């Protein structure tokens, strides 16, 4: 389950590009928090602290407690904009959450115990169909990842979403089938091209050239005969 992280935020007064530049030059990241029927609030966050949280991974699936003027605001990042050249965060959108809010997130999958899978030990290959799975999660119970155990799996076995243990209240967005997440496939065998049998193909078309040559000779002989039968022209 994701842990709630607290970040101090200050209200950002003013709007426009000039105001945004001032916030950024002061080492802050201009941001906004919206949702739950309340008015959006323009805020600014410490750039170093936010960059640290982004580098930690899973930023868009984590819950943050934004401390705005002493008031706790539960929120989740919905979008992060990065500078096209420096790749530094320059704006973040936060969605307000209530304790009982439900939210749809793409949660990454992880596979464990590959070394105890007989199929993989015999050269089988783990084919992953879904690197992430869309889940509907309570705001206070969001998993960081979905873990699938490969222990005992043989070649040809399929790993389905039902084989994962999900936290209470967390359900897949796809509910009409027990969909496949991964499978253990047979090893791929690359066949060498078959060698051509010795002498095979040699002599193809034999007799064609002589026939053609013979044909040319016959035509030449006819021309010679015609020439011989003609009287010589007198000057």
Question: What can you see in these coordinates?
Answer:
It is built from four helices and 13 strands. The chain is α+β, with helices and mostly antiparallel strands and 235 residues long. The protein has two domains: 5-97, Beta Barrel (Ribosomal Protein L25, Chain P); 103-185, Beta Complex (RNA Polymerase Alpha Subunit, Chain A, domain 2), CATH 2.170.120. A hairpin with a 2-residue loop joins strand 2 and strand 3. The radius of gyration is 37 Å and the shape is elongated. Residues 203-235 have low confidence and may be disordered.
Helix proportion: 10-25%
CATH fold type of the largest domain: Ribosomal Protein L25, Chain P
The helix tally amounts to 4
Helix and strand run: EHEEHEEEEHEEEEEEH
Mean pLDDT: 84
Any idea what the CATH architecture of the largest domain is?
Answer: Beta Barrel
Overall body shape: elongated
Which strand-content bin applies to the residues?
Answer: 35-45%
**Main sheet specs:** 6 strands, mixed, barrel
Say how many strands there are. 13
Q: What's the N-to-C terminus distance?
A: 116 Å
CATH superfamily of the largest domain: Ribosomal Protein L25, Chain P
Low-confidence spans: pLDDT under 50, at least 5 residues? 203-235
> Pairing-aware structural class of the strands and helices?
alpha+beta
Number of domains: 2
């Amino acid at each position: 389950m994701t842990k709630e992280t607290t970040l101090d935020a200050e209200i950002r007064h003013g709007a426009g590009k000039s105001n945004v530049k001032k916030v950024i030059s002061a080492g802050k990241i201009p941001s906004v928090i919206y949702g739950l029927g309340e008015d959006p609030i323009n805020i600014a966050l410490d750039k170093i602290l936010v960059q640290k949280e982004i580098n930690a991974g899973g930023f868009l699936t984590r819950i943050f407690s934004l401390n705005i003027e002493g008031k706790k605001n539960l929120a989740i990042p919905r979008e992060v904009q990065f500078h096209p050249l420096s790749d530094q965060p320059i704006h973040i959108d936060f969605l307000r959450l209530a304790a009982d809010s439900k939210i749809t997130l793409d949660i990454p999958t992880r596979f464990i115990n590959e070394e105890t899978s007989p199929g993989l030990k015999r050269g089988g290959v783990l084919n992953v169909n879904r690197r992430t799975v869309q889940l509907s999660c309570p705001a206070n119970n969001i998993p960081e990842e979905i873990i699938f155990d490969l222990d005992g799996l043989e070649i040809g076995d399929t790993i389905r979403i039902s084989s994962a243990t999900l936290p209470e209240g967390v359900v897949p967005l796809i509910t009409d089938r027990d969909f496949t997440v991964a499978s253990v496939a047979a090893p791929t065998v690359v066949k060498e091209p078959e060698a051509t049998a010795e002498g095979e193909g040699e002599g193809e078309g034999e007799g064609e050239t002589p026939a053609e040559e013979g044909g040319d000779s016959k035509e030449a002989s006819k021309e010679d005969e015609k020439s011989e039968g003609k009287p010589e022209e007198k000057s």
